[in-house]
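Problem: given the chain below (184 residues), write out its structure.
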Amino acid sequence: MLQFLSSIHPLSPALQEHLFHTLKVRELKKKDLLLKAGNICKHICFIEKGLLRCYYSHGDNEVSSWFMKEGDVIISIESFFRQLPSYESIQALEDTTLFYIDYNELQHIYRHYPEFNFVGRVVLENYYILWAQQLYALRIKQAQERYEWLLEFHSELALRVPSKHIASWLGMAEAHFSVVKGRR
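Solution.
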């Protein structure tokens, strides 16, 4: 985790020491919830190992909105930054190891270690860019193009994520997703 953060911007020895003592570790088993809809996202997490999905319920269906894997940061964006109940849940799709800090500690770090503001900005910029690319691909492209986009930019997800979750993420019924996959 410290190596990841330092790769974005050099961290002072004081900040490294603070993070070393502040970061906590959490283990999730496959299917465990990191966050349940209706609860407030109180932690920002770095995924050391594993795979998680963000999803929300729409009637009787679960709609996948995001997948995050090793080396990614995961939060429920609006819930975390506004400290409001989340409309989405976050679930482990594999056994997962996370490093995390809570919202108040992150605010403390921003106030007392100015260099971390740069790190936070870069992480958020990257997250926002990925989100914008995903929204464009999933809203503008036809079903076959969305599947091709998945294979081009997120091929590892095709191997690690159950088809029903990928289908909902790509905005397709599972049966239609199977047809699209079969055309390739």
